[in-house]
Each structure stands twice: as C-alpha cells, then as structure tokens.
Amino acid sequence: MNDAEHVNDELRHDVLRAPSLARGLQVLNEFSSHGCPMSAPALSRRLKIPRTTLFRLLHTMVSLGFLERTDNGRTFRLGVGVLRLGFESLSSREKTDIGLQVIESLCDETGLTSHILVRDGRDVVVVAKAQSRLRIFCSLKVNVGTRLPAYATTHGRVLMGDMTLDDLKKLYPEPELERFTKQTPATVEDLYERVRDDAQRGFAISESSFERGISVVSVPVRNDTGRIVAVITTTIPRHEIDASLLDSGLIDKVRRAADELSQRLNYRPKNAPNAGSQYMKALGL
User: Can you tell me the mean pLDDT for 139-168?
Assistant: First the structure.
C-alpha cells in the first residue's frame, strides 16, 4: 500500500468511526482497568471527556445495566450488563470455554443438569447450561436466556447475598411481594432474612420452592473484588434432596465448581467448613 492509499484508508476509518460508541467503550475500559468505583468528575479528568457528554454516557449505560450507581449515586461501577454479555458470549462458544467448561464438568461428575445465572435487576437470567442425560419432567423449561423472578428463586437469593436491606427496599418498593408458592417470601424483610441466612451459609438449597418436583443447590461465584457476580446451580429432579445425595458430597461438588469459576475470575476464596456436613447439622441429622 502506497502513502496515498494509506491516507485514504485512514480517512475511511475516521468517517466510519462512531464517536459516541467509542467514548462509551472507553468509559467501560476505564472501569475495567481501574477496578473500583469512580465519580463522574474523576472520569472526566482521566478521559478528557466534557462533563455534559460524560453525564449522558453514564446515564445511558446505567439505564442499560452496564454501569451501577454506588455511594448514594456519587460514584459508578461496572454493572451486571457487562457480565451478562460475557457469559452469553461464553454460552455460544466451544465447550472448552471457561464457564461452560466448569458446569459441564460438574454435570459429568453429578449426573445432574447445571446452570450459570446472573442477576439483571429484578430478574435472574440463565446464561449457560450443561444438560444432564436424565429425562426430567418439568413444566418450566429453563434454557439459556430464561428469566425468573429473583426474589422468588433460590438463585436470586444467592445472587443478592451482598445486598443490604436498604438495597432490597430500593429494588422492591412494594409493601408485599407476589407469592408463587408457600415458600415465596411475602415481604422484603422476609426476603432479607433468607438472603442473609444463605449468605452466611455460603450456599442455598431449595426443595420444590419455586417449581414443584424440582430441587436445586446454588453457590455464589465472585469476581476479583469479592462481589457476587453469578451463581452456579445444579438441579435435582425430586421433591426433596435425600440424605444419600448429601452423603455423596453434592453440595461440596457444586461449591468446588463455583470456587473454580471464581478463581478464574481472579477471586481467591477463603477456606470454609464442609458444606454437606454443615447442612446436615442444620437439619439435626
């Protein structure tokens, strides 16, 4: 390519370039590399973007879920939208990719269908699935892209494990929550108690609490900042989880899978007691 062709090529790139999109991606890259919440003035100085332009970009990205407000709206951090894009990309690639590879191994080890879910506002979204060979009758078809109400599902409670009562009240301002079963929390205060119990335990178990005849074990996945960013869950096609499954170390297997994915997201989990024994003790068995 001669000099004239090179100049023309550069000019074509400039004409085709979308400045607003480029600036938006520049903002996301800054959050990714910085690793902690930042204010709009700090971003404006670092990126040399006018404050009015930056404000519009931040507002748009918050509305789309790519950024979240923190510190009472004074700072911003990456939102679940960024993670959702990443995991949805993972779900469409070869089986050697990080998230799908982890739950495929879990499925092989347990013989049970496994999923990765993230929270998107008031919903949880399935972003990856490893299907068991077992035939499971279930009226609710859970595939990649399926959305479920966060407050009514075990997955959602685990994903909300970092949230305070005030956070939950902002997410659910209504005085009462719609109940799907007798086990669905009726109020935000009830939801918060269950979220805290699951968070302290480090995992959650549901026995036909949302879908009749289906039980699940769910464990949180954390990123390099320690935030819960996803959940790995395995599905048991039974009304209850019998003692033999617990004795086989099912909970620990799910937790090891979640720990592996967390480590690949640069989180280093602390040592914890045997989860299966912990649950059996809680049941008085």
Answer: 86
